[in-house]
Design a protein that fits this description.
18% strand; seven-stranded mixed sheet; 36% helix; 7 strands; single chain; globular; 275 residues
Length: 275
C-alpha cells in the first residue's frame, strides 16, 4: 500500500491523479515540497485567488444571516462588489430554503474515505437536493468539461451516498440531485448537471477503480499531456520545463479542464457519515 490507511481522498487529490500520476505521488505520497510558481504572473494570480476567497466568504456570511447591505458596504474591490450584487440578484433563485453552506461530508470508498466540501447544499426533505458551487473564473466552462471533472463526479456521488444526514436519515435518490455551477463574473450564468442512478453506479465503479489503482500502483508515470506541465509546480523536477504557463492563457479554450485552484481540506468542518 502506498498510502496510509487513514488517507482521505478528495476531488482535488483524485483530480491530481487523473491529470498526472507522478504529481499525485510527489504531492501525497512523498510529500515533496517544490515551490515553483504555477503561472508567470504570481502577483495577479494571487490577487485573483484572494478575490475568489473574498467572494466565497461574503456569500457564506450572507447565508448564515448577516444582512446583505452590511456586507456590501464593506466591499472595496469593484469586481467582488459586482459579483456579490449578481449573487444577491439571482444566486439563490430556485434554491430550496433548507440551506447548508460550506458543509463537508465524507463517505466510505473501498478502504478509505472520500470527502467533499460543498459551497452550498440545499435539500428539500423528500424533494430536490441542489449542490451549488460558486465560480469566479473568467470563462464559463462547458457542461462537457464539467462532467469530466472529478469535482462533479465526487460531489454528486458523495451527496447520493451520504446525503441521508441532511434528509432525515433517508437516502437522497440520485434523480433528485442536481449540481449547479454559478458563475459570478457572468452575472450568475449557470451550468446545471442533473444526476441519475445509472450515473451513480458508473461513478462508483470509476472512483473505486481509481482508489484501488492508487493503492496498488508501484510506478507513477508522468502524464503524456504536456500542457498540464506548464501549470504544475513540479515541472522542473520532472524535466518538463522551467517556465511557468502564462496566466493569460489559463482559461483558453484548450485549457478549460485545467483548474489552478487548490482544494482546501478543513478537518474542523469534517462531518463523517457513519454506516
Amino acid at each position: 500500500m502506498n498510502l496510509p490507511e487513514d488517507f482521505v481522498f478528495s476531488q482535488s487529490s483524485l483530480q491530481d491523479y487523473a491529470d498526472c500520476a507522478r504529481r499525485f505521488e510527489l504531492k501525497y505520497i512523498l510529500n515533496q515540497r517544490w515551490p515553483a510558481p504555477e503561472v508567470d504572473d504570481m502577483l495577479e494570480f494571487e490577487r485573483l485567488m484572494e478575490q475568489g476567497q473574498r467572494f466565497h466568504h461574503l456569500v457564506h456570511q450572507h447565508l448564515v444571516g448577516i444582512p446583505p447591505q452590511r456586507l456590501r458596504e464593506r466591499i472595496e474591490d469593484d469586481d467582488v462588489r459586482r459579483w456579490f450584487d449578481a449573487y444577491l440578484k439571482n444566486g439563490l433563485a430556485g434554491v430550496p430554503d433548507s440551506r447548508h453552506p460550506e458543509t463537508t461530508l465524507s463517505v466510505p470508498l473501498d478502504d478509505h474515505l472520500l470527502l467533499a466540501k460543498f459551497d452550498l447544499l440545499a435539500v428539500e426533505p423528500g424533494g430536490r437536493a441542489l449542490i451549488v458551487d460558486w465560480k469566479t473564473s473568467r470563462r464559463v466552462a462547458t457542461s462537457e468539461v464539467l462532467l469530466r471533472r472529478l469535482q462533479t463526479i465526487v460531489y454528486r456521488y458523495v451527496l447520493a451516498r451520504g446525503g441521508d444526514y441532511l434528509n432525515g436519515g433517508v437516502p437522497i435518490p440520485p434523480e433528485q440531485i442536481e449540481m449547479v455551477y454559478w458563475y459570478a463574473d457572468h452575472d450568475g450564468e449557470t451550468r446545471r448537471l442533473p444526476y441519475d442512478a445509472a450515473q451513480l453506479a458508473a461513478d462508483e465503479v470509476y472512483l473505486t477503480r481509481l482508489v484501488r489503482e492508487i493503492d496498488t500502483r508501484q510506478v507513477f508515470p508522468l502524464t503524456d499531456d504536456l500542457r498540464r506541465c506548464r501549470y504544475c509546480v513540479y515541472r522542473s523536477l520532472c524535466d518538463r520545463g522551467r517556465e511557468a504557463g502564462a496566466l493569460a492563457d489559463w482559461d483558453a479554450d484548450d485549457l478549460d479542464d485545467i483548474d489552478l485552484t487548490d482544494f482546501s481540506l478543513d478537518f474542523d468542518q469534517l462531518t463523517e457519515i457513519e454506516f
